[in-house]
UniProtKB/TrEMBL annotation, chains A, B:
Stretches of the chain forming a coiled coil according to its record: none
Record's keyword terms, sorted: Acyltransferase, Transferase
Pfam families listed in its UniProt record: PTA_PTB
UniProt source species: Bombilactobacillus mellis
Residue span, Phosphate acetyl/butaryl transferase domain: 58-267
Family the UniProt entry places it in: Belongs to the phosphate acetyltransferase and butyryltransferase family.
Protein name: Branched-chain phosphotransacylase
Length: 279, 279
């Protein structure tokens, strides 16, 4: 039995999402919802706790997973920063890694339905070398949990040539150097997006390297790059997208207002695959 | 009669591209090719000039447009920086605006075949407020030449809320402020990509603003954001993409090795629409 704790969940979008999840996982999942609004669960899908305001919603939801009663935390329709502020409070002792980072799972129909991870398009604004090393550490854990033994991790810049005038190129080179003797993953960069994800582009450019259109992970140099990429894939490339925050002791699903119920469901699947128990 | 000058053009890819252009425009276009390799033109498509090396290719090609013998400059398979170095030399007097910037034209089948411009994913690495104002000035000229009287210009950040901690958000706010009384275009930001380009996302987020999924121009906060976006649209969203450098007295087509002949042709169409004479 796995318990999903939703902070701010008494909304039609969440009912639709829980419906999808219940249909797929049946009684393997239980849902606990904290909200300041009235309980709108029509079918006794979830256990409901009423709170006075968004701050209490966040505190109660985080406390529920911190005490071990829930295994996955999910943001409903409260604001991200309110939930994240509660999540990192010392009293809950929920931080596992030094850094929290966002990881998206993207399945592209155009690339033979291949899936890859994208990080970080939602949490860390302008990573330094140290921050990006931690972002890679976090995504290595997630990739391994997904069963990718030695993930190919592409550090994205605008081109594959090292360019000292291009900050993303310098960042990629430094981070790749840090991981050069790592055997749990292949960390390579700078690399452009086409060479990281498209075997056709690799062929057209006659490119040879350790990653040739077959990256398992895309690491972007800044939040704006990841954010537009996530949105372009989701809105214009027909991709299945899900996302979560990693680095805490429980996976945290951070849905956006513009995510569909289906996309929330993919996020749940990604989060469940991070747990040690099979769901 | 319009003359297209190609620097480094004696390659099969360029023959294929010139074929496409000749089929479409017939005798309205003439091509002049500078190269250090042998002339491979099989059908007397172009006038050919042999050069000693890439530097001479660049000098001769730029000189040809500077003296008024050619109306469009196109990079073939020489390196961009060699051509650009020649282009900005004072002796040629080819700079019109203070800044050269890259502009792509993107037609997305998913968005009812709507076209929009994307700038700058290829030239300016990390624009300051001043640089981004010049990027917007350049794209205003191009949009007007395309017949868009008052283009809706979205300054992209990761979200539509102003966030002082997010450099792209601060940049967008400052640039939008600079253009607030401008009547030749509507310059607005910060705005997220989904709200700039997708009416469906606007609807789902209940968003209201001067741009609601109907942007004519996407201005990105840094080169990496524009570069991945261009590549994602071209490779995974089935978009038609073309691109050029603006700010010089002649349009400059800067093709990439991974561009198809078709994409080079779209770039030519975009460039031709910048000329005062009809082609």
């Amino acid at each position: 039995m796995t318990v999903i704790v939703i902070a701010g969940g008494s909304q039609p979008e969440i009912v639709e999402f829980v419906n999808l999840a219940k249909n797929f996982y049946g009684e393997q999942l239980q849902f606990v919802v904290f909200d300041k609004a009235d309980n709108i669960d029509p079918n006794h899908f979830w256990t409901y706790y009423h709170c006075a305001n968004d701050q209490e919603v966040a505190q109660q939801a985080v406390n529920y997973v911190a005490t071990g009663s829930g295994q996955v935390l999910m943001k409903g329709l409260i604001q991200s920063h309110i939930l994240l502020k509660a999540l990192v409070q010392d009293k809950f002792d929920l931080k596992k890694q030094t850094l929290l980072s966002h990881i998206a799972l993207i399945k592209l129909p155009q690339a033979a339905n291949r899936s890859f991870l994208l990080t970080d398009g939602a949490m860390n604004i302008a990573p330094t070398t140290t921050t990006m090393i931690e972002i890679v550490d976090n995504v290595l854990v997630v990739a391994h949990k997904l069963g990718i033994v030695q993930p190919k991790i592409a550090l994205i810049s605008s081109a594959e040539n090292f360019n000292p005038k291009m900050p993303s190129s310098v960042l990629a080179k430094e981070v790749a150097k840090h991981f050069q003797d790592q055997t749990t993953g292949l960390v390579f960069g700078p690399l452009s997006l086409d060479l990281a994800l498209s075997p056709q582009a690799v062929q057209r450019k006659h490119y040879h390297g350790p990653i040739m259109g077959d990256a398992d992970v895309i690491v972007v140099p800044n939040i704006d790059t990841g954010n537009v990429l996530y949105k372009a894939f989701a809105l214009f490339a027909g991709a299945q997208v899900g996302g979560m925050i990693t680095g805490a002791k429980v996976p945290v699903i951070l849905t956006s207002r513009s995510d569909t119920a289906q996309s929330k469901f993919y996020s749940l699947q990604l989060a469940l695959r991070q747990l040690d128990t099979e769901v």
